[in-house]
TrEMBL record:
Organism phylogeny: Eukaryota, Metazoa, Ecdysozoa, Arthropoda, Chelicerata
Primary gene name: SOD1
Family: Belongs to the Cu-Zn superoxide dismutase family.
Cofactor: Zn(2+); Cu cation
Protein name listed in UniProt: Superoxide dismutase [Cu-Zn]
Record key words, sorted: Antioxidant, Copper, Membrane, Metal-binding, Oxidoreductase, Transmembrane, Transmembrane helix, Zinc
């Protein structure tokens, strides 16, 4: 039977910097328990009684499982918060003896740094949009320059599909894996793809840099292969008082779009 115990703060001194940084940045909590776990580390498959260290965060939306064996950490998986919560329920409340990863296996080193690019050319609207994340726990920075726009604010979103076979229409709705209402980029209740507005000047050029905590460049919720769409009108951020506002922000027609692809670091 798994037994929960308080996680001593001194244990953090034994963690790798990338693990400790989650605690500092995430605003969440750590917990621990004892159970039989198994994973592969150093080319060997291990199965032993070890301490499971778990972290949950309302802002990072990811959680990481590791166990401590003979003074060395062994990562089991990196998974979405929803899936992680199910594992905690099973291994803690129900006393399941084996904590097995239930998310697709991911090499954490592949996710440590990531970059993507999106080249947009749709008639008069052109752009190069870059995406970058420096480490697993860091937000994604979206930066770029879009030209050929009318002066003012324009809705700017990640859409579900990278399908441009019928123009921007076939990119589908906003990327919304959690099934939430449309909202502003700085609130919890929003689509993952909700990046708010970009502003074009009198020259028709919008220059922007957006730092976002919900976008992912790897894993099951990655935006790789999806589409960026810039709209004709201002996004009302879900505050328009009608049903369409909670879906699209009443941002209007799709002026331009491009598929997000992996870029060299």
């Amino acid at each position: 039977m798994a037994q929960s115990k308080h996680l001593d703060r001194n244990l953090f001194s034994r963690f790798p910097p990338s693990i400790y940084s989650i605690r500092k940045e995430g605003g969440g909590r750590w917990s621990s328990s004892w159970a039989k776990v198994s994973c592969v580390t150093g080319g060997r498959s291990l199965r032993t009684n070890s301490s499971i260290i778990a972290y949950t965060s309302p802002t990072i939306h990811t959680a990481r499982y590791l166990y401590w064996s003979r003074g060395a950490p062994c990562f089991i998986s990196n998974m979405s918060l929803l899936v992680f919560s199910c594992v905690i329920l099973l291994s803690g409340a129900l006393g399941v003896r084996a904590a097995q990863p239930i998310a697709p296996r991911q090499n954490l080193s592949d996710c440590e740094r990531a970059a993507a690019v999106c080249r947009l050319h749709n008639g008069t609207v052109t752009a190069t949009i870059n995406f970058k994340r420096e480490r697993v726990t860091a937000p994604v920075t979206v930066s770029g320059e879009i030209s050929g726009l009318s002066q003012g604010l324009h809705g700017f979103h990640v859409h579900q599909y990278g399908d441009l076979s019928q123009g921007c229409v076939s990119a589908g709705p906003h990327f919304n894996p959690y099934g939430r209402n449309h909202g502003a980029p700085d609130v919890e209740e929003r689509h993952v793809g909700d990046l708010g507005n970009i502003q074009a000047g009198a020259d028709g050029v919008a220059r922007f840099q957006i730092v976002d905590h919900q976008l992912r460049l790897c894993g099951p919720l990655s935006i790789m292969g999806r589409a960026i769409v810039v709209h004709a009108m201002q996004d009302d951020l879900g505050r328009g008082g009608n049903e369409e506002s909670l879906k699209t922000g009443n941002a209007g027609a799709r002026l331009g779009c491009c598929v997000i692809g992996q870029a060299s670091l």
